[in-house]
Design goal:
- The protein is built from ten helices and twelve strands.
- By secondary structure, the chain is of the alpha+beta class.
- The protein has two domains: 159 residues, Aminopeptidase (3-Layer(aba) Sandwich), CATH 3.40.630.30; 129 residues, Aminopeptidase, CATH 3.40.630.
- Strands 1-2-3-4-5-12-6-11-10-9-8-7 form a twelve-stranded mixed sheet, sandwiched between helices.
- The radius of gyration is 21 Å and the shape is globular.
- It starts with 6 loop residues before the first strand and ends with a helix.
């Protein structure tokens, strides 16, 4: 165990490039050491950094340094008005020193300043230390998702009717918002996702057209040599006809045209239909991320209990 010589905490509203490099370096070291997964959304955060400047009074990045060396980090993600998503890490040589607890206390303080009632704590399913810490917070298990990678060719290629993926434009923003609400029950937001702005950050949104009708959508993200597929959905009246599979296969083709070395996606463990589809198209589960839910009400109850014991 390495002694702390000059500890200090830095809190920021958004990532700068030097922060990104330091956090990414720590992330890669922790993943290699622990053989676990971290969901920090660093590329997304960096690409949206300029937009985050409007929320300069909100703290999202919590960094623990010993001198100039980053040894701990917790990041907060909040998409629209949805729950805060929290995930972080500590350098293996500096664990059991209260680093993560001190950062998390600051995250809780930030959460209390916001109107959001729910916070989700994320942990790799196989992380004993992560699961133990979350249990200490009083958070309750909510859900899990698989991270899957394309490892094989689709078992069968069934083309129903020709589906065309059309790159979305800003004029399609309302259609994208409507489909997001339908597929993912996202809470209403006054801000629309503008596809042309997302494309500048490396995220391409495609609408799936069948003849003259839009039947679904998909989002493609390329970061370095990795391509990601998310936001895939088919409108209810077109489901059960193989269109979801065709959208997925065409999305894979587009990412391969971008010369990515690997393709990944995430799916809720309880979404058996989507899981079966992805498996049949050559995807295999690589890790499981567990989500634990804590509300301000349950946090207050926990605080009262601890106070009564003191």
């Amino acid at each position: 165990m390495i002694p702390l010589k000059n500890p200090g905490i830095v809190i920021k509203g958004f990532l700068e490039y030097d922060d990104y490099k330091s956090i990414n370096k720590l992330k890669e070291y922790c993943i290699a050491h622990d053989n676990l997964t971290l969901k920090l959304e660093l590329d997304f955060k960096l690409s949206h950094a300029l937009c985050e400047m409007k929320d300069i009074n909100q703290a999202n990045e919590f960094m623990f340094y010993d001198g100039r060396k980053l040894i701990g980090y917790i990041g907060v993600c909040q998409f629209g008005e949805e729950a805060l998503e929290v995930n972080g890490m500590v350098h293996p040589d500096y664990r059991r020193r209260g680093v993560f607890s001190r950062l998390y206390a600051l995250v809780e303080d930030e959460w209390c300043k916001r109107s959001t009632e729910v916070m989700l704590l994320l942990s790799d399913h196989n992380s004993l230390s992560g699961q133990a810490f979350i249990k200490y917070t009083g958070a309750q298990y909510d859900s899990s998702e698989y991270e899957m990678f394309l490892t094989d060719e689709p078992k069968e290629k069934i083309v129903t009717e020709p589906v065309f993926l059309r790159r979305a434009m800003n004029k399609d923003a309302n259609e994208i918002a409507k489909q997001n609400d339908l597929y993912f029950q996202t809470e209403s937001s006054t801000e629309l996702t503008l596809p042309e702005e997302e494309a500048k950050r490396g995220v391409d949104i495609y609408l799936a057209d069948l003849e003259q009708s839009c039947i679904g959508k998909v989002h493609l993200d390329k970061q370095d040599s990795t391509g990601a597929i998310y936001g895939l959905g088919v409108l209810p009246e077109y489901r059960g006809k193989g269109y979801g599979r065709e959208i997925l296969l065409r999305a894979i083709e587009k990412l391969k045209e971008m010369k990515v070395h690997e393709i990944k996606l995430q799916v809720a463990v309880k979404n058996k239909n989507a899981l079966s589809l992805y498996q049949s198209c050559g995807f295999e589960e690589a890790s499981t991320m567990d989500y634990y839910k804590i509300t301000k009400r349950t946090r207050t109850k926990k605080d009262k209990k601890e106070t009564s014991r003191a």
